[in-house]
Specification:
The structure holds two protein chains of two kinds.
Chain A (H helix, E strand, L loop, with lengths): L2 E5 L3 H12 L4 E5 L2 H10 L4 E5 L7 H10 L8 E5 L3 H11 L3 E4 L4 H14 L1
Parallel strand pairs in A: 1-2, 1-3, 3-4, 4-5
Chain B lengths: L1 H42 L6 H31 L7 E4 L1 H11 L1 H6 L3 E5 L7 E4 H18 L5 E10 L5 H4 L6 E9 L31 H11 L3 E6 L5 E8 L3
Parallel strand pairs in B: 2-4
Antiparallel strand pairs in B: 1-3, 4-5, 5-7, 6-7
Helix pairs in contact in B: 1-2, 2-7, 3-5, 5-7
Classes of the chains: A alpha/beta, B alpha+beta.
């Protein structure tokens, strides 16, 4: 079973995304912020990461760069969760080194599709 | 005088920031509601009775409508404060037109409408922000579909025009410039003379129907986008005889 690390501070959205992804057979680890993320990084290695870049108190951009520069996590695909328009999200993802993006509010079929594609590519 | 202008622009910019910030914040709770309803639909496909299914489908479509309205609000406030960035590339306008028609094929079929296209062959490419011009054309087509009765006809045409075909005074376009002109005509109730320019204002609704829904921002957004491309958009009509919407975009050779 593939594991997805979800870094999302909104409890309700995180819960719903977890239900959705679990119904597709994925195991979800949800952390609410960068600090918790750092703790997890030492213990687990997920197959994919979903990162909300609108986290409070910490720059999502910096988090993404941090994840990519951490050797064991180097090749784990990252999907960024944004509230920007499609085009701006695309540019932002590229800037940050993320593999893909999903704009909120999202189409769950798109999210599942992106996850599936990225996991296959790996 | 100048300092008043600066103050007004600054307050518009602050207002735009507040609206944009708020619209931005709304996206997370709306994402939750959208996903919650979607999960209810998807996880209960088998044991869901007709009534529940119907209620959920109303919830889904209203959520999508809400999302569109917030996106429009965000867009108009960014456009008005000059904070929009255009991502321009050389494009054939036909490509945008065909894509737009394709995206509305379901409702066009459902209303048994005819779409007549008169697109000039080998139209020069224009340098435009594809997504935004798509938005303009989609909005104009949406309106045409809304205001044309079932079994009606919508005509879309393109032309190349040079400035002397225009009434210069009214449109203030560049003398030495060539333009691609897009026109869409519907066979709806038409627009009264006094409303021909008013409809491009924010929140203006047509004088007739309360049934026809929309945020009232579509044409204001379209006007902003076309003018950002150094073009012009306008409407012509006679009450009871349908309406035509036109826009021109400069050709850059």
């Amino acid at each position: 079973m593939k594991t997805i690390l979800l870094i999302e501070d909104d409890i309700n959205l995180a819960e719903l995304v977890k239900i959705r992804l679990e119904s597709h057979g994925y195991q979800i680890i949800n952390v609410p912020d960068g600090l918790e993320m750092l703790k997890i990084m030492r213990k687990t290695k997920p197959d994919l990461i979903i990162l909300d870049i609108m986290l409070p108190r910490i720059d999502g951009y910096k988090l993404c760069r941090l994840l990519k520069s951490y050797e064991p996590y180097k090749n784990i695909p990252i999907i960024i969760f944004t509230a920007l328009t499609g085009k701006e999200s695309k540019i932002m993802a590229k800037d940050m080194g993320a593999e893909s993006y999903i704009a909120k509010p999202f189409d769950s079929n798109k999210l599942i599709g992106e996850i599936s594609n990225l996991l296959k590519a790996n | 005088m100048k300092s008043i202008h600066v103050k007004i622009n600054k307050s518009n910019s602050i207002r735009a920031d507040i609206i944009a910030g708020f619209a931005h914040e709304l996206k997370t709770p709306i994402a939750s509601v959208k996903e919650a309803v979607s999960l209810l639909v998807d996880l209960n496909k088998v044991n869901c009775d007709k009534k529940t299914k119907h209620i959920l489908s109303i919830a889904e479509s209203e959520i999508n409508r809400l999302i569109k309205m917030i996106d429009n609000l965000l867009e108009i406030s960014l456009l008005e404060s000059g904070k929009i960035r255009l991502y321009r590339e050389k494009t054939k306008i036909d490509e945008i037109i065909n894509r737009t028609i394709g995206s509305k094929s379901f409702i066009i079929q459902r209303k048994n409408m005819r779409i007549k296209k008169y697109l000039i062959a080998n139209a020069p490419r224009v340098i435009i922000d594809k997504d935004r011009i798509f938005e303009v054309v989609a909005n104009l087509l949406d309106n045409a579909i809304k205001f044309t009765p079932e079994y009606g006809t919508i005509t879309i045409s393109t032309q190349i025009i040079k400035i002397d075909e225009f009434q210069l005074k009214k449109l203030y376009l560049n003398l030495k410039q060539e333009y691609v002109k897009f026109t869409i005509t519907n066979t709806g109730p038409g627009i009264s003379k006094r409303n021909l320019t008013r409809i491009f204002q924010k929140f203006e609704r047509p004088d007739t129907d309360r049934k026809i829904r929309g945020s009232g921002l579509g044409l204001a957004i379209a006007q902003n986008i076309i003018e950002l491309h150094k073009g012009k958009i306008w409407a012509t009509s006679e009450k009871g005889k349908g309406a035509s919407f036109h826009f021109v975009i400069p050709v850059e050779r």
